[in-house]
Amino acid sequence: MERLHQYVNSKADEYIEWLIETCNQPSVSxxxxxxxEMKDLVKFFLRKINAEIExxxxxxxxxxxxEINSGKPKTLTFYNHYDVQPEDPLHEWTxxxxxxxxxxxxxxxxxxxDNKGNLISRxxxxxxxxxxxxxxxxxxxxxxxGEEEVGSPHLKYFATNFPEKLQTDGIIWEGGARxxxxxxxxxxxxxxxxxxxxxxxKGANYDxxxxxxxxxxxxxxxxxxxxxxxxxxxxxxxxxxFYDDVTPLTQKDKQFIQTMDFNEQExxxxxxxxxxxxxxxxxxxxxxxxAAPTCTICGIDSGxxxxxxxxxxxxxxxxxxxxxLVPNQTxxxxxxxxxxxxxxxxxxxxxxxxxxGLTPFNTDTEHPFIxxxxxxxxxxxxxxxxxxxxxxxxxxxxKLLNETSIPAVQIGVANTHSNYHAPNENxxxxxxxxxxxxxxxxxxxxx
Length: 447
Known about the structure:
Oligomer: single chain
Shape: globular
Largest sheet: 6 strands, mixed
């Protein structure tokens, strides 16, 4: 593959220009801004590698499906998304988020890390392979959606209605990063799920004078009492049956967790904290981060919170919670258990409003596709990889793959300080070029 690596180096400026062109095109799905233009741009770049392209219409933004049939026995698929987050707050950017800026070896633009850098790097890898070796050793498929940043509402539709398009020997998923400081590439085999709910507690028909609190129940206090039954100070979730479905870690799972190089002091300094929960460190910290379910209060709203004082007894209180779920837990089961828990503790009146949910997804750690990817990583990087059983966050992997046995692995061009969804989103040029080479090696090694 040395010839290919040299070719990628020689084409680096052109491949960077391809990325710049996509990043300069806004594609904010939440605001329907630039989506049609970005869709056409994605198809333009797929034509550069002679992919057969199909535009699959949905009630939202179309899924762009591409295919290169080389007549080989193995098939590799790339999942990516062409939409990005809004750029707000604009005043915190040091350059225009939709006018790509390159400085000191880094590329700054909205979407460069999430996910246009990965999307274009896959296309560049195929292009380089075709130019150097002419014939591809595998069949290739591309699933590029435009709704990942708004919850991928039509990805399940694609999986259900186009099963033949989903058939593959492995998927390189959209994420992936490299350590910003230690430069170790991250290889992820899955994601946690999520169950997001609102708990709503109602009191009187309208806010009252606080003197009435002597005889009228305060929904804010009642909601706090309910929350105290859900989780204790030892960070244990007290909902009966919540942990029953959790799949125990295998020995290989634990070996992968051990590969994480988590800089505890640097993280504490960056966040301005003195310790982690329960003062965990070492292996226990890494296991909690990647393999433990959580319950998080994301926000609370009740009564008067503006400047000055207002003696009021609020009529309603609301809290937003998210549960991060691990393999074998589901959002539906979590809501059911939460309802039973509240009822059994005397809080039948508290309403649960489910916002959204994603099922966890994990690739079987024994699947041979993992070794293909790890070999490809070793072909390119000097640094040993960090192998993540799953990310601490969530992704729509389950919507596409839950009814299949298809393995999905995340490798990518971002870095651990890429500022995903935040101002000054960035990637390193070197990571982008190396990412192209890794993808080309996956193509080669799978073949």
